[in-house]
C-alpha cells in the first residue's frame, strides 16, 4: 500500500456542537482513550488514524487492538507514528472475533472516557470533543453515548441518508428485543466505570454482535444517549457484502438467544420504568438540532 497516497477523505467542518456551534475544546478534565479493533484492515486503519490525528480535542491515547492481522498492519502503525503525533498503543489479541478484540481494548484503556470506532471509520475533527462534552455534561446515570454515520465514499447526502436508514433499522429491530436503543460500535463512547461494571456480563465469543451484547448490560436507572448529530464516516461494506450482512444478523440472533432467558424485553422495560419513576429526572439541557436522545425508562425519550 502506498502510505503517501492513502491520505483518505477529510470530512470538512466538525459536526455541530450539542446546543450550539462547534468550538475548539481545550484540555479535557477527564482523559480520553480511543479503542480501534482491527483485523486485516490496515489500509482503512490508516485513514482512521488520519482522522484521529486531526481531532480538535486530541485523545490521550489511541489503543489499536490487533486481532491477528496478516496484511502489513505493523508497517501502517510505524508510518503513522512517524507522520502524526498520535499517542498510539498496540494491543495483541490472538483470539479471533471483534468481541475479544473490543474487550481487550476496553480493558487496556487508561482513561475515564472510552471512545470506540472501527478501523474503517473516519472520525471528523469534532468527534472526540462531541462525545466528551456530552458525557461530561450529563449526570452519572448517563453511561454511554452513540452516534450515527455516513457511508463513504459517496455523495454526502446519499451516504448519510443510506447510513441513517441502516442504523435506524438496527436500532428499531434491535430495540424490540432489547427494550431500548442499542449502542453502535462504529461510533460510541462510554464511561470506563460503566465498562468495569458491565464487563462480567458480556459474552466473550466470536459468535456475538459485541456492541449489541454490551447494550444488554444497561441497568435500570442508567441510560444511553443517542446523538443524531454525531456523524462518522464508515465503509459501505456493512450493507453491500451479503456474507457480511448475513454474519451480522447471525451474531445479533446469537446475542438474543443468550440474553432472552434472563432478560425478556418487557421485563427490562418494566424495571426501567420503575427505576425512572423513582429516580432522578436524568440528563437535560443538551438540546440541539438533531441533538441527543436518551435511551432510558420506557424507551427512547427526548433528552
UniProtKB/TrEMBL annotation:
UniProt keyword Glycosyltransferase, yes or no: yes
Similarity comment: Belongs to the glycosyltransferase 2 family. CrtQ subfamily.
Origin: domain of life: Bacteria
Cellular component aspect of the GO annotation: plasma membrane
Species this protein is from: Rothia santali
Keyword Cell membrane belongs to the record: yes
Positions of region (Disordered): 1-23, 273-303
Protein name: 4,4'-diaponeurosporenoate glycosyltransferase
Upper classification of the organism: Bacteria, Bacillati, Actinomycetota, Actinomycetes, Micrococcales
CDD domains the record matches: Glyco_tranf_GTA_type (cd00761)
Subcellular location field: Cell membrane
InterPro entries: Glyco_trans_2-like, Nucleotide-diphossugar_trans
Domain Glycosyltransferase 2-like: 33-157
Record's function text: Catalyzes the glycosylation of 4,4'-diaponeurosporenoate, i.e. the esterification of glucose at the C1'' position with the carboxyl group of 4,4'-diaponeurosporenic acid, to form glycosyl-4,4'-diaponeurosporenoate. This is a step in the biosynthesis of staphyloxanthin, an orange pigment present in most staphylococci strains.
Coiled coil: none
Protein's pathway: Carotenoid biosynthesis; staphyloxanthin biosynthesis; staphyloxanthin from farnesyl diphosphate: step 4/5
Keywords: Cell membrane, Glycosyltransferase, Membrane, Transferase
Molecular-function GO terms, alphabetical: glycosyltransferase activity
Biased composition (Basic residues): 286-303
